[in-house]
Amino acid sequence: MIKLKTVRVERFAVDGSFIISRGAKTDVDVVYCEVTDGTHVGCGEGTPIYYEGETADLCAEAIDMRAKQNRPLTREDLLKTMMEGAARNALDAALWDLEVQATGKPLWQLAGLPQPKPLVTAYTISLNEPEVMKADARKAAAKGYPLLKLKLNGEDDLMRVAAVRVGAPDARLIVDANEAWEEVDLEEMTGALKKLGVELIEQPVEAGFEEDLEGIESALPFCADESCHVAEDIDRVAATFQAVNIKLDKAGGLTEALRLSEAAKARGLKTMVGCMLSTSLGIRPAFHLAQTADWVDLDGPALLKKDRAGGFRFENGIISLG
């Protein structure tokens, strides 16, 4: 019988600060857990979805409570007994890892995914004054990142993107409004951004107000992030978005994320596999799912001052297994 071995909250410092429209972070708390079958041990990590009210302490409590229930600790049963979110993600990841240890088979085989290869990942340019974002983009380009993701907030955003384009003239660009474009003329904005070489816009409107995008003649595709957590959300977002950002912390683990990816592609949507701020342990399952994605945004560990030992390598904009 599989049992919870340990669960705890861990804190990791951000390299500088991570700034989006909802605020700034200088460190990130994650929930870490281990499960065991008595012989092997599997480990997993989750980052709380703070805009959903999650905290690392609450996630740790939820994992501990689930482990004390008189139910089998399996991935399938987690889908029945836990809400999506970081707590379920951490447990789900630990159970996948336990199966890897117990069977000797790699995760990609167990999950029915392609054998992993190095991938181009986006690198996040935090929300800031245009000149600061230009300097940050120049530094990222110098490190070899060919794809930059710009955090915006609905104020002077064209100035910010134009400044980044000067700092990184050859980079591919994605912009992420994090629900902040309620007052923005989307048709005008998307046309201007296309001229600046932007290829995708994440979550322009607040989750729950997807109908605001109906009838918009956008020059660029919209990608649902906060609006899409699990497979059941696809029917709601497919009419107004052209892509979805799959994050394991939102989905509640790789098990649900696989269902979400399949549902999105069945509706003709493109996929991005993204992440919260996290260590390499937190994005390990996501890296395997990202082998099937149109965009990859797994720079969480690269934004920390120090990652876990044996983590992913980030070189010239490429993420690869360490």
Automatic annotation (TrEMBL):
Its top-level enzyme class, in one word, is isomerase
Question: Keywords, A to Z?
Answer: Isomerase, Magnesium, Metal-binding
Mind telling me which residue stretches traverse the membrane in this protein?
Answer: none
Q: Which CDD domains match?
A: L-Ala-DL-Glu_epimerase
Q: Could you tell me the EC number(s) of this protein?
A: 5.1.1.-
SUPFAM superfamilies the UniProt entry points to: Enolase C-terminal domain-like, Enolase N-terminal domain-like
- Positions of the catalytic residues: 151, 247
Q: Which GO terms describe its biological process?
A: amino acid catabolic process
Q: Does the keyword Isomerase apply?
A: yes
Give the record's cofactor note, including how many are bound: Binds 1 Mg(2+) ion per subunit.
Q: Domain Mandelate racemase/muconate lactonizing enzyme C-terminal spans what residues?
A: 130-223
Q: Which Gene3D superfamilies match?
A: Enolase-like C-terminal domain (3.20.20.120), Enolase-like, N-terminal domain (3.30.390.10)
Required co-factor(s) are:
Mg(2+)
The family line of this record is: Belongs to the mandelate racemase/muconate lactonizing enzyme family.
Q: From the Swiss-Prot or TrEMBL record, give the protein name.
A: Dipeptide epimerase
